[in-house]
Design brief:
Elements (H helix, E strand, L loop, with lengths): L3 E10 L2 E11 L4 E5 L6 H9 L6 E6 L2 E2 L7 E4 L11 H12 L5 H14 L15 H14 L4 E5 L7 H16 L7 E5 L3 H7 L2 E6 L4 E7 L8 H4 L3 H23 L5 E2 L2 E2 L1
Parallel strand pairs: 3-8, 3-9, 6-7, 7-8
Antiparallel strand pairs: 1-2, 1-4, 4-5, 9-10, 11-12
Helix pairs in contact: 2-3, 2-4, 3-4
The structure holds adenosine-5'-triphosphate (ATP).
Adenosine-5'-triphosphate binds next to helix 1.
Length: 271
């Protein structure tokens, strides 16, 4: 199971409507990438799915039950790393494991935490405080924590945005591996990115959001067979056609803004 239903969701901060009329059915085991211009409400939608905020109107349900609070059925990776700064990096992962798998012996939890930290390329950070790590390392530790609890739903907000190209490619592969690992019971993933190529590499479907207020502009199937090998994928006609379509859809927002009489300037010239 682990189907997510988003029904006519509206969300406002005071008088400002951030999301409006969001409808989306996410099937169990789907990998959804959310693309959209900055400020269109992608993170806000993820916060609603995580149960950190509630829709102003409409509903969000997981397998028919309304999402009202965070839960261990949903692993989250947000942009702000969200590690407890007073605990070592290893303890941060162990704490999540203790919540997800209570009663497991402590040494096993520590071994699992260390294994997941190593999986994301963090071999020697178990005893270090998050403050002693770089931003990219903290992000990887937060990813290790989300992966370790092995929740059936993963909500990820630009998780690889701050990483170098090689680490990013490794973690994309690791994520796909974890997603596919239990055949027939894939995780349901909702993944926010600004990178169109990353979205096509990862997603079963790409949801493009628009601005003012945040809404779903289009939903695109990515029917390119897996495994998708980067070197081959990027030159294929299917990839190029979908990439161009998605970029066109994303730019449609900019063009709408221009139609409203606003001007985008580059190098001092109006276009
Ligand atoms: N706590 C808050 N109070 C008031 N407004 C907020 C708050 N958090 C976000 N917003 C507003 O909600 C809108 C959507 O923000 P959100 O972070 O969801 O967008 P986003 O699509 O994820 O952007 P980005 O791609 O830049 O991360 C923005 O206009 C933002 O200013």
């Amino acid at each position: 199971m682990h189907t997510i239903s988003i029904n006519n969701v509206q969300f406002s901060y005071g008088a400002q409507t951030i999301l409006d009329g969001i409808d989306l059915e996410v099937l169990a085991g789907e990998f959804i990438c959310l693309l959209g211009p900055s400020g269109c409400g992608k993170s806000t939608l993820l916060r609603l799915l995580a149960g950190l905020a509630k829709p102003t109107l409409g509903s969000i349900a997981l397998d028919g039950a309304p999402i009202t609070a965070p839960g261990l059925d949903r692993g989250v990776v947000f942009q702000d790393y969200s590690l407890f700064p007073w605990m070592t990096t290893g303890q941060n992962v162990v704490l999540a494991l203790e919540q997800a798998f209570p009663g497991k012996p402590k040494n096993e939890q520590r071994e699992t935490a260390q294994a997941y930290l190593e999986m994301v390329g963090l071999d020697n950070v178990f005893h270090k405080l998050p403050g002693a790590l770089s931003g990219g390392m903290r992000q990887r530790a937060a990813i290790a924590r989300a992966f370790a609890i092995n929740s059936p739903v993963l909500l990820m907000d630009e998780p690889f945005g701050a990483l170098d190209a090689i680490t990013r490619a490794r973690l994309q592969d690791l994520l796909l591996q974890l997603w596919q690992q239990n055949k027939g019971e894939r995780k349901t993933v909702i993944f926010v990115t600004h990178d169109v190529e990353e979205a096509i590499l990862l997603a079963s479907r790409v949801v493009v959001m628009g601005l003012n207020p945040g809404s779903v502009r289009g939903v695109f199937d990515v029917s390119i067979p897996r495994p998708r090998v980067r070197q081959e994928l990027y030159g294929t006609p299917e990839f190029i056609a979908l990439r161009d379509r998605l970029i066109g859809e994303l730019h449609a927002d900019v063009l709408d803004e221009l139609d409203e009489g606003r001007t985008v300037r580059t190098a001092g010239e109006g276009i």
